[in-house]
Design goal:
The complex is a heterodimer of chains A (420) and B (567).
Chain A: E1 9-19, E2 25-37, E3 42-46, H1 53-60, E4 68-73, H2 81-84, E5 87-90, H3 102-112, H4 117-131, H5 146-157, E6 164-168, H6 176-191, E7 195-200, H7 203-209, E8 212-217, E9 220-226, H8 227-231, H9 246-258, H10 273-286, H11 314-327, H12 330-336, H13 363-369, H14 373-387, H15 390-396, H16 415-419
Parallel strand pairs in A: 3-7, 3-8, 5-6, 6-7
Antiparallel strand pairs in A: 1-2, 1-4, 8-9
Chain B: H1 10-25, H2 28-46, H3 53-89, H4 93-96, H5 103-137, H6 145-156, E1 159-164, H7 171-184, H8 187-198, H9 202-221, E2 223-224, E3 229-234, E4 244-252, E5 259-263, H10 266-271, E6 277-281, E7 295-303, E8 306-310, H11 313-320, E9 328-333, E10 336-342, E11 354-362, E12 369-378, E13 382-388, E14 398-404, E15 410-411, E16 418-424, H12 426-454, H13 457-472, H14 474-484, H15 492-510, H16 514-517, H17 522-525, H18 531-558
Antiparallel strand pairs in B: 1-16, 2-15, 3-14, 4-5, 4-9, 5-8, 6-7, 6-9, 7-8, 10-13, 10-16, 11-12, 11-14
Classes of the chains: A alpha/beta (420), B alpha+beta (567).
Chain lengths: 420, 567
């Protein structure tokens, strides 16, 4: 575990120039990249194809050597064996041996970390259960679908309970269950104090889980900062409340107008396709429909949940929450997430009721239904609380503070504190 | 050698084990096993050699061990090149090298895995060859005459040491010839002639002239005109084996030809060799019937439970004249030597290509002599005579004389003549032969690992196979280049020969002589692999050459960018 607040990864003036056969400089994949990745943060590397994300990751992993600049991982060279013992890596594709089955694969990588037989067996069982491949663990990887290979790839990256997890395009090829599970796993690992570097061009994945992001283009850093800091629209305020009838909506409009504000958008939030998908799969599993592929998977492997973990609810609840979120109504989900807003009915005549202050594309309500909703909602609320005009809010809520607004006062606290 | 993280060598074993499993799963071993079983099943019935059982077994051993060596060499090169280059091409290294695994551990572990697989396949193959050879040995229906059975026992299922005949000493003769030419004033003319013919400087021409004179004198010294003899003095013969003593019964009295028939237990019959010596004591009351005392004769007939032996008339008179049939005797067999030789000479197409050869072997200390009467011997073919070890003195010295009874001259070159004697067991020799092959495979695995760590699969295979061919054909190439170079020639050809010679010299440093390790003839010839030879082969093939290649492979792989992109 990262035991100091010293940066986990530091790159300084990191540059990589690829040369051709005649040693002529052809491509500058990464140019003068300065990064400092701190302990216990989920750091995202964003950028379009060819922007240098993977190259930067591979230099951090010691698979490529910098043309200029320097890298330190845990204060050492990336190629140092002691450094690598604390790293887990999931590459952009499954580069595992197709002639081994899942259990042999994990056993092989476990041996490289000098885990004894009992420990290896324990971890392998837990990881297979976690990624939902326990029932197909004796099939060779060559027979696996791409998504199943991604799952076993993820399992191998976690075999050593790494302090630093580096994942390159992690959800590529994964089905929605695996994607959701993966994102929750990242959150769980971060909660345990692990550091995660995630490279992706799937912006939704990055937005859902990352604390800070770096956006690369042409190998150069274009932006660096916290997700909230970069995404938050400071000039707007967003509410989520029970469905409002026309009269109430008019009154809200009047209140806002009296404050010199106007309603910019009124819409009912849509259920996400991801949630619908997860609910259907959940139903199929409950009906015991047979499958030759991956199952939904168990909870986060116990050894990854840390010493305070117990079988239930703990980390398992994170995964179970995935499916529960898809089937439970919003009120249950929000209650589970300790979200302040009352539930909205999923369907019914009230659909046309404006969910007034909620922007359809907003991330807050979506996160509220997720298993990691607590952290993300608090994050959002904290940001919102910093900007909201309290008088307007009080007028809307009858002057009573929202019970879910308990963190508003402490909104400026660093996020890490919430995890500890 | 310890891991920075964990148990020393644990990663090596993990990678080696993984490599072993990988090779098995990729079915290379299965293909090898099928080919091996097919060849072992077909070879004994297809290969008849010279028609004798000895020839059949010898041919089987030759072809089967060669087939195993060739198949394994190809498999090992393909596997070892493909392992690392395949991991790089398939990007498996991206995961492997982010684990706490030093790159050198990965490279050496891969090599160890290939060696383990090659060792297992080789052990299986050699076990099958051994069992098949023993099965053939038990096929009494294939034995052609008693000599055949003895050849199987003493020349194939044996580990013999070979002592080459000493070269003739021609220094004095050449010195005298040079002095005579100089006295006649013909020396300078001869040197001038060499200078003109070969385009040499005066000293080089003189050297070449002296060399030619030496060769001519040596050839002359090794030739015997009709009725003449040749003589050699062997030294350092250290045979193994003990005197074997057993009871026997005279089956009959001596006949007119001086032949005595004796019945013995089968164990004794197995110790005797046809035309080899045998001591029979106790037939006469005056004999002590102990040890080698008695009469020494030559075995002229051999059965499972007895033999016929021919004695000199003096011995018959002294030892068997008063011995009745049924008389208990003591039979003593001693270890024997085999002398291998080849008569060289012109073959007359109108006459049978045989010569009459007689031999005498003398112990220089006690003057014991063993005489082999004239026998028909085919010209230009290797022949063997069996000699009692009594002809060797305690210091390992033995005098040998050849009598040319033929009407034509014959030559016996010292390179064509050697004494072979049993000194070790066949099984140990068999194991050593297999280990020599394994050493060659270890080198090839190192070569393949190096090629795979530096190049792609195609380039690595090309490089490895070219070097494998050079290593196997090293002797042929050396002879071809040395015999092809003509000192007098001018132009591009001598330059090319020089370049080729230098390249071959470099190759000799880099590569072991794979023809003497992987395609060794020790089993076929029944010659013992000495510990000296074995140790040097191990040191130079594995300890030096393979180790250097592995060190280079580790260095190259350590400095290699594993995620290099093509631009």
């Amino acid at each position: 575990m990262s035991d100091s607040d010293d940066a986990i990864v530091i790159t300084s003036g990191l540059t990589k120039v690829f040369k051709d056969f005649w040693l002529r400089e052809k491509v500058t994949a990464v140019a003068e990249l300065d990064l400092e990745i701190r302990p216990r943060e989920v750091f995202g590397l964003l950028g379009p194809n060819g922007s240098g994300k993977s190259t930067a990751l591979k230099m951090i992993l010691g698979l490529l050597f910098p043309t200029r600049g320097r890298i330190a991982v845990f204060g050492r060279r990336p190629t140092d064996v002691a450094t690598k013992a604390r790293i887990g890596f999931l590459p952009e594709e499954s580069y595992l041996y197709p002639f081994l089955d899942a259990r042999e694969t994990l056993d092989f990588y476990g041996r490289l970390f000098h885990q004894n037989r009992t420990e290896r067996r324990r971890r392998v069982d837990m990881l297979l259960d976690m990624v939902g491949l326990a029932s197909v663990s004796h099939r060779r990887l060559g027979e696996y679908s791409k998504g199943m290979q991604r799952r076993i790839g993820l399992a191998q990256a976690l075999i050593n309970d790494p302090d630093l997890l580096i994942v390159d395009e992690p959800t590529s090829g994964m089905d929605p269950i695996g994607t959701r599970q993966f994102k929750d796993l990242i959150v769980e690992l971060a909660r345990r104090g692990k550091t995660v570097i995630l490279s992706s061009h799937l912006l939704g994945d990055v937005e859902d889980v990352c604390d800070r992001v770096c956006i690369l283009y042409g190998g150069r850093r274009q932006a660096l900062g916290g997700v909230d800091e970069l995404l938050c629209q400071q000039s707007y305020t967003q509410f989520t409340t029970d469905r409002l009838d026309e009269a109430t909506l008019d009154r809200v409009g009047a209140v806002l107008a009296s404050a010199g504000r106007r309603i910019r958008q009124v819409a009912a939030p849509r259920q996400k396709l991801e949630d619908l998908f997860l609910r259907i799969v959940k139903n199929a599993q409950e009906s015991r429909v047979k499958t030759g592929g991956a199952t939904a998977g168990g909870g986060v492997a116990r050894f990854l949940r840390g010493p305070d973990a117990s079988d239930a609810p703990g980390g398992r609840a994170v995964i179970e929450g995935l499916l529960a979120a898809a089937t439970a109504d919003s009120s249950e989900a929000q209650a589970q997430a300790n979200a302040p807003a009352p539930p909205l009915p999923a369907n019914g005549p009230a659909d046309e009721v404006i969910s007034g202050l909620v922007t359809p594309a907003g991330g807050a309500d979506q996160r509220a239904r997720d298993g990691d909703a607590e952290r993300l909602t608090e994050q959002h609320r904290a940001a919102a609380g910093r900007q909201a005009d309290r008088s307007v809010i009080d007028a809307l809520t009858g002057g009573k503070p929202d019970p879910g607004d308990r963190d508003a006062a402490g909104a400026d606290q660093p996020r890490e504190a919430g995890r500890q | 050698m310890s891991d920075a993280h964990g148990i020393p060598g644990a990663n090596l074993w993990t990678v080696a084990r993984q490599t072993f499993v990988q090779c098995l799963r990729t079915r290379v071993a299965a293909v090898f096993a099928v080919l091996l079983i097919a060849s072992l099943a077909l070879l004994p019935s297809l290969m008849e050699g010279d028609g004798t059982l000895a020839g059949r077994i010898r041919t089987f051993l030759d072809y089967s061990t060669s087939a195993v060596s060739v198949l394994l060499a190809l498999s090992v090169v393909l596997l070892s090149v493909g392992l690392i280059s395949g991991d790089v091409a398939g990007k498996h290294v991206l995961i492997l090298c982010t684990k706490p695994l030093c790159r050198w551990q990965y490279v050496i572990g891969r090599w160890l895995g290939v060696v383990m697989l090659a060792g297992a396949l080789l052990a299986g193959a050699y076990a099958a060859i051994y069992l098949t050879a023993w099965y053939l040995r038990g096929r009494n229906d294939l034995v052609i005459g008693p000599r055949d059975a003895q050849a199987v026992a003493t020349e194939i299922f044996a580990a013999r040491t070979r002592t080459q005949a000493p070269p003739p000493d021609v220094d004095d003769l050449v010195r005298r010839q040079i002095k005579a030419k100089k006295d006649q004033g013909a020396w300078d003319d001869a040197v001038d002639s060499y200078m003109k013919n070969y385009g040499l400087t005066a000293p080089a021409a003189a050297d070449k002239l002296i060399g030619d004179m030496r060769r001519s004198a040596a050839s002359e010294a090794q030739s015997a005109a009709p009725g003449k003899s040749l003589q050699w003095k062997f030294k350092g013969l250290q045979y193994a084996g003990e005197v074997y003593l057993a009871p026997g019964i005279l089956a009959g009295g001596a006949d007119q030809a001086g032949v005595v028939s004796v019945r013995t237990p089968p164990a004794m019959a197995q110790k005797l060799v046809i035309f080899g010596p045998v001591w029979v004591g106790g037939a006469d009351e005056r004999d002590s019937a102990k040890g080698p005392a008695g009469a020494v004769g030559r075995v002229v007939g051999l059965w499972n439970d007895g033999f016929n032996a021919a004695f000199s008339l003096d011995d018959i008179k002294a030892h068997f004249a008063n011995a009745p049939p049924g008389k208990d005797v003591t039979v003593v067999a001693q270890p024997t030597l085999q002398m291998s030789y080849k008569l060289s000479g012109a073959v007359d197409p109108n006459a049978p290509p045989d010569r009459l050869a007689a031999w005498e072997f003398e112990n220089p200390t006690d003057n014991f002599r063993y005489f082999i009467p004239p026998q028909q011997v085919r010209v230009n073919q290797q022949a063997t005579v069996i000699v009692p070890t009594a002809a060797v003195d305690p210091n390992g010295a033995m005098n040998v004389r050849f009598f040319n009874i033929s009407a034509a001259s014959v030559t016996i070159l010292n390179s064509d003549m050697s004494v072979l004697y049993g000194i070790g067991g066949f099984e140990m020799n068999f194991i050593k032969s297999g280990l020599l092959v394994l050493m060659g495979l270890m080198f090839l695995a190192a070569l393949g690992i190096f090629a795979g760590s530096a190049f792609s699969f195609g380039v690595g295979c090309l490089m490895s196979f070219v070097l494998l061919w050079i290593g196997t054909a090293m002797r042929f190439l050396t002879e071809a280049i040395s015999s092809g170079a003509n000192p007098g020639e001018k132009g591009l050809a001598p330059v090319m020969y020089d370049v080729a010679g230098w390249m071959l010299l470099v190759m000799k440093v880099i590569l072991p002589d794979l023809s003497s390790t992987m395609l060794n003839n020790f089993l076929v010839e029944g010659t013992r692999i000495t510990w000296d030879y074995f140790s040097w082969a191990a040191l130079l093939t594995v300890g030096v050459r393979a180790a250097i290649l592995l060190a280079l492979a580790c260095l190259v792989f350590h400095r290699r960018e594993l995620a290099q992109v093509q631009v």
